[in-house]
């Protein structure tokens, strides 16, 4: 029972946290900028590859996901490190060390709550790419057929 209380607390803490919303808008904005400034340039042949690709080609989508995931690793480190040291910064640790709470419930609830938020933030990357492709007014010859697996696989 205490596991789910820690899980619920971590989720509500993260949803109310300003940093989570900054990460949310940063991921969404970076995905939209990646479509507009990198994928379209590569598709037109003015990028580094020198080849003409469709904007939504699986190669370019994978490239964008790898690049954005590297930035996402720093966000992941920030989320999990905050969950690890927050009790010591707020001086709450004596309360948790004297209460009858198992390590599995405490650490597992904290980990799972942060993991769920991190997974939701990471899922914004392909959603931002899809949204960016839909919002841009691209020439029909730059777009290939829409394949959902090209966005889900990376």
Residues in helices, as a percent range = over 70%
Q: Compute the average pLDDT.
A: 84
Low-confidence stretches: none
The value of Rg in angstroms is 20 Å
The N- to C-terminal Cα distance equals 36 Å
Keywords: Membrane, Transmembrane, Transmembrane helix
Organism: Pontibacter toksunensis
Protein name: ABC transporter permease
Structure write-up:
- The model has no long low-confidence stretch (mean pLDDT 84).
- The protein is mostly helical and 154 residues long.
- It contains seven helices and no strands.
- Helices cover 76% and strands 0% of the residues.
- It has one domain (2-152).
- It has helices at residues 2-16, 18-44, 58-89, 93-98, 103-122, 124-135, 148-152.
- 26% of the residues are buried.
- The two termini are 36 Å apart.
- It is elongated.
- Keywords: Membrane, Transmembrane, Transmembrane helix.
Provide keyphrases for this structure:
154 residues, mainly alpha, 7 helices, 0% strand, elongated, transmembrane, ABC transporter permease, membrane
List the topology elements.
Layout: H1 2-16, H2 18-44, H3 58-89, H4 93-98, H5 103-122, H6 124-135, H7 148-152
Helix pairs in contact: 1-5, 2-3, 2-6, 3-5
């Amino acid at each position: 029972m205490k596991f789910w209380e820690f899980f619920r607390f971590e989720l509500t803490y993260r949803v109310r946290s300003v940093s989570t919303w900054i990460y949310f808008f940063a991921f969404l904005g970076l995905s939209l900028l990646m479509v507009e400034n990198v994928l379209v340039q590569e598709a037109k042949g003015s990028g580094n590859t020198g080849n003409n690709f469709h904007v939504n080609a699986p190669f370019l989508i994978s490239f964008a996901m790898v690049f954005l995931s590297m930035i996402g690793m720093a966000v992941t480190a920030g989320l999990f490190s905050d969950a690890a040291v927050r009790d010591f910064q707020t001086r709450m640790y004596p309360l948790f060390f004297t209460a009858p709470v198992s390590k599995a419930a405490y650490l597992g609830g904290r980990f799972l709550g942060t993991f769920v938020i991190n997974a939701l933030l990471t899922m914004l990357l392909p959603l931002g790419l899809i949204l960016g492709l839909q919002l841009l007014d691209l020439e029909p010859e730059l777009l290939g057929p829409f394949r959902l697996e090209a966005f889900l696989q990376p």
